[in-house]
Structures are given as structure tokens and as C-alpha cells.
Design brief:
Layout: H1 2-16, E1 34-39, H2 42-54, E2 68-84, E3 91-106, E4 111-125, H3 131-163
Parallel strand pairs: 1-2
Antiparallel strand pairs: 2-3, 3-4
Helix pairs in contact: 2-3
Length: 165
């Protein structure tokens, strides 16, 4: 009985502090009738559409039938060295940075935002003794980075589009 009560208290505390499971941040999206257009950002576009579908949002089939057109463009990853072993001079840690750009406009041509940068990054430790595993880890990190960037895009769109109704 005490264990059950303790579990209930812990669940209430975690929900009260704003804790959410990964991927569950977007539960509602108050803006409907959006067309998502990709112009060089296929990974981000796919993830944004997936998250919108998860929130129950129906996307417009064409820009003409939409109220808003969102264009995601110019995605690329950059990898830079964060730390080097002082004794050997070999890389120990990288930073993976994802960059893309976003435009949003009304279908009547009024621009809401243009060339808005979307950035997300993660750190990756490197071990030369586990190179194959680190390449797999890097791919997983890139997927997570794109997921984070898509969440960032949706939060911005929620704020921008509701303010420009």
C-alpha cells in the first residue's frame, strides 16, 4: 500500500514539474490548413509533417488550398572538433550542428517570416577503438537533432501563425 502511494505521489510530482516523454511536447496545434513545402530540407520536412500528424493536424494538399505556406530549406550538418586529447593530439569530442532555414507566409503573399534560421546541436564523444559504433551513434544523434529542430519549427510556427491570424 505504501509503495502504491509513493508511486502515485511520484507520478503527480513529475507531471506537475512539466515533465514530458520525448516526442510528446506537441499535443495540440491551433493552426490549421498549412501547406509544408520543402526546398532542400527533406529530413526536416518529413519530421515536421510526422509531428503534425501525431498532433492530429491535417495538412493542405496544395499551396492554393492552404491558409499558410511554410517552406523549409537549406538543411545541412556541420561537424566541428570540441576537444582534443592533450597527450595524443587525437579528437575526443565533436559537436554536430544542424542548420536549416524557414519561411512562412499567407497564401495571399504576405510574409510572416523569411529566412528564419533553425539550429540544433549535440555533442558526440569519439573513441577510435569503437569507430563503427560511433558512426552508428552519430547517425542516431543526427536523427535526434532533426527531431529537435522540427519541434523548434513547430513551436515557432505556433507562436508566429497564431499572432498573425
Amino acid at each position: 500500500m505504501k509503495m502504491r502511494l509513493l508511486l502515485i505521489c511520484l507520478l503527480l510530482l513529475t507531471s506537475a514539474c512539466g515533465f514530458h516523454l520525448r516526442g510528446s511536447q506537441l499535443t495540440t496545434f491551433d493552426v490549421a490548413n498549412i501547406y509544408i513545402h520543402t526546398a532542400g530540407a527533406p529530413k526536416l520536412t518529413t519530421e515536421v509533417k510526422s509531428q503534425l500528424a501525431g498532433a492530429g493536424v491535417m495538412l493542405a494538399d496544395s499551396p492554393q488550398s492552404a491558409s499558410y505556406v511554410v517552406t523549409l530549406k537549406e538543411e545541412h550538418f556541420e561537424k566541428s572538433v570540441l576537444s582534443v586529447n592533450a597527450a595524443t593530439g587525437k579528437v575526443e569530442e565533436y559537436q554536430i550542428l544542424y542548420l536549416a532555414r524557414m519561411d512562412a507566409s499567407h497564401t495571399n503573399g504576405k510574409t510572416i517570416v523569411e529566412d528564419d534560421p533553425v539550429r540544433s546541436s549535440r555533442d558526440l564523444t569519439f573513441d577510435e577503438n569503437a569507430v563503427l559504433g560511433k558512426f552508428s551513434e552519430e547517425e542516431l544523434l543526427q536523427e535526434d537533432i532533426v527531431r529537435r529542430a522540427a519541434s523548434q519549427v513547430l513551436r515557432r510556427l505556433q507562436a508566429l501563425l497564431t499572432a498573425n491570424k
